[in-house]
Structure formats: C-alpha cells, structure tokens
Amino acid sequence: MNTPQTAAFLKKLDNVLLLTHVRPDGDTVGCAAALCQALRDTGRTSFILHNPEITATYEPYAAPYWAPADFAPTHVVAVDIAAPGLLPENAKQYAGRIELCIDHHPSNSGYARHTCVDASAGAAGELLYEIIRVLTPITPAIALPLYVAIATDTGCFVYSNTTSRTHRIAAELLELIDVSAVNKALFRTKSRTRLAMESRMVADMTFCDGGRAVVMRIPLSLRQELGATEADIEELSSLAALVEDTDCGITLRELEPGTVKISVRSGPRVDACAVCAALGGGGHRAAAGATVRGTLAEAEAAVLRALAEATEA
Amino acid sequence: MNTPQTAAFLKKLDNVLLLTHVRPDGDTVGCAAALCQALRDTGRTSFILHNPEITATYEPYAAPYWAPADFAPTHVVAVDIAAPGLLPENAKQYAGRIELCIDHHPSNSGYARHTCVDASAGAAGELLYEIIRVLTPITPAIALPLYVAIATDTGCFVYSNTTSRTHRIAAELLELIDVSAVNKALFRTKSRTRLAMESRMVADMTFCDGGRAVVMRIPLSLRQELGATEADIEELSSLAALVEDTDCGITLRELEPGTVKISVRSGPRVDACAVCAALGGGGHRAAAGATVRGTLAEAEAAVLRALAEATEA
C-alpha cells in the first residue's frame, strides 16, 4: 500500500495496539508515539505495547502511550519492523495478527496482512509523517516524536539515506517545534561511560580487507567493567564508520556469552545487507546487522568470510 | 538591504572580486564560490581573492575561482565577514571600497557601503541561496558550495541556529546534488590519529567543581607519540563539551614545554570569557581561551582557581 491507501486503511481502525522492534531506536519509538497520538487525536483508542528493552533515551517519548496490562486490542499495527523475528518477546503473541506494517526496510519480509514499505525513505518517520498528515493536523505532540524518528535514523541529516524529502519534512516539523534541546541531548551529549566505551573500542580496533575495513568489539566483560547501560551502548556501531580511509565499519557486540550482534556500516563498495544476509540478518545496503551464535572471535571470522564473499562477487 | 534588493544590486555589477574571512570556514568559502559561479553564469567576470589561510578541507570549493594576480576589480563584495578586522592581510587593500557585504552575524559592524544582514539565518549561505535564485537558475555547481556553507555552519543541522528555513533550502539543494560524499568527508570522518588522541584524552579526563567541570589534557608527549598533525588536533576542545552532566569543558594543550593553551567551553552557569580573561585570554561567554606559561599541572591549577573565582562571583 502507498501512504494515502495506508491512511485510508488506518481511518477504519479502532482499539489499535502499536508494536515496536527489539532494541528500540528513535525511529520505531518516534513512529509509534506519533501514530498513537494521531489516532487519539481522531478520537480512537490506541496504545503502544510496552517494549521491555526501551532505553532512558527514548522512554519519555513512548511512556505516555504504554498499553495497560488489560488492553485487548482489536487491531495490531507494526512500525519500522522488518520481520517477525524483530518483535520483542511480549509482542510475539501478536505475530500472526499484524494487520498493517509501516516500514522503510527493503528487506521487509511482508509478514503483515498489509504492508506500506518505501525503502527510499530515510526513516519510517518520513512515511508516518505523510500518513498522519492525511489523518489529522500535525500538532507539536506529533511533530516531536516524528522529528526524533527522522533525525535519529539519518544521524541528524548526515547519513546517505537523507534526501530532499527528509529535509522538506524536517522543515515542516520545525515550523511547529523547537528541537534545540532534543538535538543537544541526542547528538551532542555523551555519558562518561559511553566515552569510556568508545575510548576502549578505539584503542583495540583492528583493520582488515587491505585496511579498508575496521573492526571494533564490545565484549560483555567491557560492558560489565564499565557498568554500561543499554543507553550507553546504543548506536555505538556508528563509531566504526568514522575511521578515515576505511569504507566498511564492523562492530561486534557480545550480547550474552555465545551470542554476538554484528553491525556493518559501509560505503558503496560493500553491500552491508548482503554481508549480514549471509549471516541470517538484514538491513540496508549501507547499514545492516545480524545476530549470530558463537564467541566474539568466531563471529568476527564469520563476518570477515561474508565480507570477502560479498566483495568478491 | 533585503535579499531581493541585494539581488537587484548585484545585477548591476561586473568585474566583481569576492572576499572571504580569516581562518576561512565552510560558510565564507561556500558563499563566495556559489556567488562567483552565479555571476559567471549570468555572463559577468568574477573571482574570489585568494585566502592564504585556506585549508585542504575547503580549498577544492574555492580553487576554481581564485583571482589571477593581475585582476583589477571594478566592484568588491564581502561574504560572511562581520568586521574589517576579519579581512585577511591581502584583502585589507580593499577595506575602504567594499560595496556590498552579505552576512548573518548580529555583530556586523556595517563597514560596507551596502549591507545585507539577517541574523536569523543559520548560515550566510541561506541568504546567498535566496539572493542567487533571483539572479540565475541554481545549478549543481552553485548548489554544492551553498550546501557546504549551510551544513558546516549548522554542524550538519544540529546546532540551535538550524531553522525551518535551513531545512527547506537544504531540501531544494538536495534536488540537484548528491551530498553523501560531502557529508562523509566533513562530518563523518576522523583520522586514526585523531581517534587515538580522543581515546587517550577521555581515558585520562578528570572532573572537578563538584563534577560539573571536566578537564582534558593534550601533553606534547602525546602529540609526539601519536605523530599528530595540526589537522588531527584542530577543534579537539569540542570533545570536552560533549560530556554528560557537565557544563564546563576545559582542554589543556601543551603547545611547547612551558606553554599551555587553555580552552573553555561552557553552559550558562559559567562565563568562559571571565575565566579566560583572568588568565590573560578572552573570547565569548560560551567559548573562550587563554595561553599561559607553566607546566600542564600549573596551568590546570591556574584555570581551576579562575573557574572557582568566576563561579563564586
């Protein structure tokens, strides 16, 4: 469905539960908050299913909309969720009855009954903006989470997924809200623990693929040593993408003993999505991820094999 | 003059020399390049006066427009230059005959015969966009330096000077150009040496003033050990301004044995200029500096005394 069709479909729904993805980022949380507020503004009942992995960074945007424990939804909608495997544990009970998914991941598996996917959108928030404006006037309470969605998924308008459309929507949103405090908090503040994590990751980074790829690691032991929270390590994979003279940044994060989350950020030479797809993951051409079983060293060997295969082809 | 008046005025000029400011940044260079190209597109002769302090970062945007040594301009225009004191040495000969200044600094001294100043613009590039579009169609060769001007002066749309207008202009420019490579180079690249410097500065940072001030140090030995160039350490004082729960970031850089450059970045509680003035330096309330004699430890003791006095008052 395109965005006008999606808006028309949403107009027919009431008692709507909104789902966000595991390790929730600004895009999934911002989209859910904006849509929930928009549905309420048009007189409908709507909640966001509590996401147990919500971080302090994004909790304030979602908290006003968390569903009460006894909410029995008539309709279930997923935002920014590419596949059922990305549903949090408590959302899996709804996996078979998701009527609508609004997403911008090209890898979207089409699991929902209706899907509104536009991979040209820098953030799912761009699609939500276009959908919501058909439903109801955009208020500051809708604009702020939409801005968070769009700004976070584009690295504050710096990643290559930023388009003319991204800026045009931001221009509309900034007519309604002051984003100085949000920008300072999201993009110009780092916790001491996060700075320490980055410092250690840089000190231990290694290079491969003829110096064109950099590998950074977040062992569980480092996280424990520094007492890092989820907020301290979120989006840490962007650090590897900064290193001069490289065009592939790989971050290996030990989620628990024997499980490693791999993140790949890449320039045009490397298809990050292909690399991660070979490991059972997915994402975008320039930013993708996969979660694999094994030690950090085994995960590193696996991703480097996948990288070699993807760049050979 | 407003921007339509400025465009009308520019239409009457030919043989135009454009001036940029000392320590040229992306805004002054981008504005000059865009205006020079626009004037040429309308059949006029125009050049930019060579800026001896141009850095490798911005040189490519200005180089096609440098004036030949024998260029005798009929008209002289300044872009993003708030006062005659900010003219490079080789531009001072034109100080008395600047017919037009296009700028966004509220402190503009009104030194030019005609001044187009709009302090609500995040970058002078926003004004140049509005002026140039009246003169001639915006081409990619004009759009790229305008984007550089606007993106650099707003920290890539993150500083509080970013407005709806900023985003709307960026949206128009992105219809014409791909800025992925520019964004990557300007905002998403750090040299390995710079990353290593930051890593070490963070590892050794200390806190004082009840945890509200952070102190970072760049000993000469660290610079030598890492083989850091000037480019590797420029703007490193911004690192201390990122630390969560602090509102005063102090960076101590040993310039040579016995000489230390102190940089202070602060929030509203601390007047950085007062702190540095007590040490013989100066600057703005939120960002100031001083150069003192002594060891790193002596400089640190001196700045902490000055900080205590400034915050007691």
Main beta sheet of chain A, described? 6 strands, mixed
Mean pLDDT of chain A: 96
Shape annotation of chain A: globular
Strand order, largest beta sheet of chain A: 6-7-8-9-11-10
**Major protein interface:** A-B, 43 and 40 residues
Structural class of chain A: alpha/beta
Instruction: Indicate the low-confidence ranges of chain A by residue numbers.
Output: none
The total strand number of chain A stands at: 11
Instruction: Tell me the radius of gyration of chain A.
Output: 19 Å
**Proportion of beta-strand residues of chain A:** 15-25%
Fold blueprint:
The structure is a homodimer of 313-residue chains.
Chain A: H1 3-10, E1 16-19, H2 26-41, E2 46-48, H3 59-62, E3 75-79, E4 100-103, E5 114-117, H4 124-135, H5 140-153, H6 164-174, H7 180-187, H8 192-203, E6 206-208, E7 213-218, H9 220-226, H10 230-233, E8 248-256, E9 259-266, H11 272-277, E10 282-283, E11 287-293, H12 296-312
Parallel strand pairs in A: 1-2, 1-3, 3-4, 4-5, 7-8
Antiparallel strand pairs in A: 6-7, 8-9, 9-11, 10-11
Helix pairs in contact in A: 1-4, 2-4, 2-5, 4-5, 5-6
Descriptive terms for the model:
homodimer; 313 residues; alpha/beta; six-stranded mixed beta sheet; five-stranded parallel beta sheet; 12 helices; 11 strands; 38% helix; globular
Structure explained in plain terms:
Two copies of one chain form a homodimer. Helix content of chain A is 38%, strand content 18%. Chain A has 313 residues and is α/β, with parallel strands linked by helices. Chain A is globular and about 55 Å long. The two termini of chain A are 34 Å apart. The mean pLDDT of chain A is 96. Chain A binds chain B through residues 155-160, 162-168, 170-172, 174-175, 179-180, 183-184, 187-192, 194-196, 198-200, 202-203, 205, 241-245, 267, and chain B through 156-160, 162-168, 170-172, 174-175, 179-180, 183-184, 187-192, 195-196, 198-200, 202-203, 205, 241-245.
